[in-house]
Design brief:
Helix 8 links the parallel strand 2 and strand 3. This protein starts with 7 loop residues before the first helix and ends with a helix. The longest helix has 38 residues. It has 305 residues and is mainly α. A 3-stranded mixed beta sheet has the order 1-2-3, sandwiched between helices. It has 9 helices and 3 strands, in the order H-H-H-H-H-H-H-E-E-H-E-H. Helix 1 packs antiparallel against helix 2. The chain folds into 2 domains: 202 residues, Cation efflux protein transmembrane domain (Alpha-lytic protease prodomain-like); 78 residues, ANL, C-terminal domain (GMP Synthetase, Chain A, domain 3, 2-Layer Sandwich). It is a multi-pass membrane protein. Pfam families: Cation_efflux, ZT_dimer. It comes from Saccharopolyspora thermophila. InterPro entries: Cation_efflux, Cation_efflux_CTD, Cation_efflux_CTD_sf, Cation_efflux_TM, Cation_efflux_TMD_sf, CDF/SLC30A. Keywords: Ion transport, Membrane, Transmembrane, Transmembrane helix, Transport.
Length: 305
């Protein structure tokens, strides 16, 4: 009987999360300041596009705030009642961000319908100046979060929100210019709708990724059937059962399996070979493996789940 596991991915994830904290804190402060500015000016100028951008900026503020809180919580030591730590907080925060984005996009689309019928007069110059300031803030935050977005689902959620808001600020800037130069106030709801529609597919992708992790689906790119066959093809392994592969949080793929062997097998050798296979071929560094003779496997086959 043997057990094995690796801690490379967990250690790497904790180390990486530490690098994000200061960048997320700086991003949070910048976005909060410019959200307040955009909301105030949008209300005073009756600009739905600016209010739309402020709404997206609010989700940025909440998204970065939740990302910061989730990463901080995930770095806390594992306690006796939370044997997996708080890594899933990151995924829950990403899902919450997606729900917020869906809500904001829906509200803007609803409000835009009335504006198309009776577009109010919009003050173009304050709208343009505020959008320009918001664009500058988004570009700074965009640069701060860009690297982390490739490694963390949670940071990626905040990054996508900032990306959408950056494009939204450009749209608001153009809408303000058109309103100011030509007096065509339909530009305001058109920009608002465009921003709402732009963010929806990206929001859906983020929500799908978060849900995939929460329901413990196999990681994308991992063929479980082939993985089982590769483990069964190892020397001395006669059968593989109770195989589970899932993602704990971004960059932390986990596996567990029982490997049935011939009674004369070298269990230590089988364990090492299986760990090497999972790490090198499937990039799964945290695996709990049980190597057992055929008589022990009978008990596992009696389980109903």
């Amino acid at each position: 009987m043997g057990h094995g596991h690796g801690h490379g991915s967990a250690a790497d994830a904790i180390s990486a999360s530490g690098r994000y904290v200061r960048r997320l804190a700086a991003s949070f402060a910048i976005l909060l300041a410019f959200f307040l500015l955009e909301a105030l000016v949008g209300f005073l100028t009756s600009s739905l596009a600016l209010l739309s951008d402020a709404g997206h900026m609010l989700t940025d503020v909440l998204g970065v705030g939740m990302a910061l809180a989730a990463i901080t919580a995930a770095r806390r030591p594992t306690e006796s009642k939370r044997t997996f730590g708080l890594y899933r907080m990151e995924v829950l925060a990403a899902l919450a961000n997606a729900v917020l984005l869906f809500g904001v996009a829906g509200y803007i689309l609803y409000e835009s319908a009335a504006r198309f019928l009776e577009p109010p007069q919009v003050a173009g110059v304050p709208m343009m100046l505020t959008a320009l300031a918001g664009l500058a803030a988004n570009l700074v935050v965009f640069a701060l979060l860009r690297q982390g977005a490739n490694e963390s689902l949670n940071v990626r959620g905040a990054y996508l929100e900032v990306l959408a808001d950056t494009i939204g600020s450009v749209g608001v800037l153009v809408g303000g210019l058109v309103s100011w130069a030509f007096g065509w106030y339909l530009a305001d709801p058109i920009v608002a709708v465009a921003v709402g529609l732009f963010v929806l597919p990206r929001t859906w992708k983020l929500a799908r990724q978060a849900l995939r992790i929460l329901v413990q689906q196999a990681p994308e790119g991992v063929d479980v059937v082939q993985l089982r066959a590769d483990l069964a093809a190892l020397p001395s392994v006669t059968e593989v059962h109770d195989l589970h592969v899932w993602t704990l949080t971004s960059g932390m793929e986990v596996a567990s399996a029982h490997l049935t062997t011939a009674s004369s097998a070298d269990h230590s050798g089988v364990l090492v070979a299986a760990q090497r296979l999972l790490s090198e071929r499937y990039r799964i560094d945290h695996a709990t493996l049980q190597v057992e003779p055929a008589e022990c496997a009978k008990r596992c086959q009696a389980l109903t789940w």
